[in-house]
Amino acid sequence: xxxxxxxxxxxxxxxxWEDVDxxxxxxAIANTRTMMGNRYVRxxxxxxxxxxxxxxxxxxxxxxxxxxxxxxxxxKTTKKWYVKPDVxxxxxxxTTWDGVHGAxxxxxx
Length: 109
Fold this sequence. Notes:
It comes from Streptomyces cinerochromogenes. Residues 46-86 form the Tyr recombinase domain. By secondary structure, the protein is mainly alpha-helical. It has helices at 9-14, 46-58, 63-70, 75-81, 87-108, and strands at residues 20-21, 26-27, 35-36, 39-40. The protein has one domain. Helices cover 51% and strands 7% of the residues. Helix 3 (63-70) crosses helix 4.
């Protein structure tokens, strides 16, 4: 669930109960964990993180809020690595292009 909300895998693995404030409905990211024992944890939770950030971006969350949600200081990082266009975004672009292309074709006739 936390990965679907955009947390990094290392943040989810490092979360402790004392970091959770149920009354305030907040969590504090105070620790990260990328190793268990002597082995690195190999987790593909970044796919869920990317889906979360793409969903938020596609539903009108402003860029500066999106970056803050992701824990980034630079909006460009968030948009470059995590916000991916989906099929519906591309369909909208194709419709727009068809309007331009169709108008040019009709004008030539």
